[in-house]
Design a protein that fits this description.
Blueprint (H helix, E strand, L loop, with lengths): L1 E2 L12 E13 L2 H13 L4 H24 L4 E12 L5 E12 L1
Parallel strand pairs: 1-3
Antiparallel strand pairs: 2-4, 3-4
């Protein structure tokens, strides 16, 4: 399965457009991650714990997107867009929405 943010795949013409495919993932950051991120916020630098949470959510959304595209008969998804939002009480959870167009190449 080929996943891309571009609208076309160079050298691989799209034979059939199957439709829009979407996937959502919501993941929480626990209290320990919040504490360590708070310390990092005070002293400066990158927050590795939150970066890992974001990466996990992104990968989960893309995996679900791929699975849904396969069920539609696709062998690629083009024009993928990823949106990140905080949700829940005090923004304690991260939501990742992935969408694209399932195609056959």
């Amino acid at each position: 399965m080929l996943l891309t943010t571009t609208n076309a795949i160079e050298g691989r013409p799209i034979r059939n457009y199957l439709g829009i495919v979407t996937a959502e993932t919501i993941i929480g950051a626990n209290i320990f991650k919040d504490i360590f991120a708070g310390i990092r916020d005070i002293v400066g630098g990158r927050s590795g714990t939150y970066e890992k949470v974001i990466e996990e959510a992104r990968l989960n959304a893309l995996k679900e997107l791929e699975q849904k595209a396969v069920l539609m008969g696709a062998n690629a998804v083009v024009a993928i867009d990823l949106d990140f939002e905080t949700v829940g009480s005090g923004g304690s959870m991260l939501m990742v929405v992935a969408s694209g167009t399932a195609v056959q190449i």
